[in-house]
Amino acid sequence: ELSYHTPFRYQVDTAERILELYENSRFHNTAVILSGLPNAGKSYTLKVLKKMFDRRYPNKLVRYITNFDPRLIGNDITNLVLNFVSAETPAIIFLDELQEILRFVFQTRDNYAGDNRGRHANDIGTWNTFIDLIRDTPNVILVGATMESFDGLKQILRNGRENDDNESNLSMIRHGRFDGIITMTRDEDTNRGTMEYIENDIGVRNWTI
User: Fold this and answer.
1) What pLDDT is attached to residue 78?
2) Long-range CB contacts (< 8 A, 24+ apart) of 75-84?
3) Exposed, middle or buried by CB within 10 Å (0-12, 13-18, 19+), for 12?
4) pLDDT tens string 43-96
5) Residues in the chain with pLDDT values less than 50
6) CA dist., res. 151 & res. 111, Å (int)
7) Taking Cα atoms as reference points, which of 7, 31, 5, 12 lies closest to residue 132?
8) Would you list the DSSP string of the chain?
9) CA angle, corner 203, sides to 176 and 168, nearest 5?
């Protein structure tokens, strides 16, 4: 059972926006990037979303998946995704510290210290396949949370491998993989916050935003 207390208005607004994207999508599938400092309450907002989802669909068992290990993206990737989600059971998949997961994709084999998962080191294609399989499955909400701004995430991808300034790395978070970016801010003195949603148009207009 998820711990729950009265959320702030901006957290409710964020959860409602994500649920709206899900319900308005053709196959009940959406993915967003949630950006904000640690005090913004990104993780708690996902608990609010789960509660909201349960109330909206009381006859469905909604799974809330948070134990994502980026080292697993290359291990039996199809089975992994199918175990996470199914057409009958809605799922909220939470990728916390998205910036670190993206950095992990660029790690070299040496960084795996003999781990057999190193065969997928430096493998952007494996990440893209993982996300695409999730996006092709109905009844899924995928949220990647990060402390980075959207520009910060893009810079991580542009740097990518050492000495690699590859603009095409932005395909890892392009439109179609992530539909939009929600920026959450919170004033610790007043506990008031704001949320702003923008549609992701990487890959829609010449790889720019």
Assistant:
1) 60
2) 75/117, 75/120, 77/126, 77/129, 77/130, 77/133, 78/133, 80/130, 81/130, 81/133, 81/134, 81/137, 82/137, 84/134
3) middle
4) 999 999 999 988 988 888 788 877 666 666 655 556 666 666 665 678 888 888
5) 1-2, 205-209
6) 26
7) 31
8) -----PPPHHHHHHHHHHHHHHHHSTTSEEEEEEE--GGG-HHHHHHHHHHHHHHH-TTS--EEE----GGGTTSSHHHHHHHH--SSS-EEEEE-SHHHHHHHHT--GGGGTT-GGGGGTT-HHHHHHHHHHHHTSSSEEEEEEESS-HHHHHHHHHHTTTT---GGGGGGG-TTT--EEEEEEEETTTTEEEEEEEE--TTTSTT--
9) 110
Is 170:156 a contact under the CB 8 Å cutoff?
A: no
Pairing of strands 192-199, 180-187: antiparallel
How big is the CA angle at 205 (ends 134 and 33), to the nearest 5 degrees?
Answer: 40
Of 28, 69, 71, 39, residue with least CA distance to 179:
28
Amino acid (1-letter code) at residue 24: N
Please report the sign of the dihedral spanned by the C-alpha atoms of residue 79, residue 70, residue 2, residue 138.
negative
- The 10 Å Cβ neighbour count of residue 143 is 24
